[in-house]
Amino acid sequence: SYELKNLCSEVLKEENCLEINNNTLVDRFGNSDGIIQLIQISMMHTLYILRIMYELNIMPLAIQISNICGFFIGKTLQGGRSERNEYLLLHAFNEKNYIVPDKRKHKRGIEREEFAMDMTTATQGDLTQVEGETTTVGANGKRKKAAYA
């Protein structure tokens, strides 16, 4: 699990990471001491996060990935794993002088085109059989949304 408490125990070997319970959160706003405790806990969580980043060498690795892929560091830190993997593969292909394959269109895009072609032949109020499901078609040739009671 990637919760802060679990990361603290696994990476930092610390078991005393405090968590704020949602039920007690509202009560802590009742007085100034509770708010000060919330601020202190938030600052400790930030410190734990920084220590985890240091232990896992996240910044040097992110900079290295950014240099390889040609990204800005912010995009590397914000981007998903699949995007980084894609650019690392493209870089490796380019390095070995391989021809980079074209991106494939997703199957959903093809289905939408077929659906749009079927809908152009439909008229208002018709029941149309499209890809195994019966739908009601509106005046503009688009599917009507389901009406729930």
UniProtKB/TrEMBL annotation:
GO molecular function terms noted in the UniProt entry: chromatin binding; DNA replication origin binding; DNA-directed DNA polymerase activity; single-stranded DNA binding
Protein name, entry field: Uncharacterized protein
GO biological process: lagging strand elongation; leading strand elongation; mitotic DNA replication initiation
Cellular component GO terms, alphabetical: alpha DNA polymerase:primase complex
Species for this entry: Megaselia scalaris (Humpbacked fly)
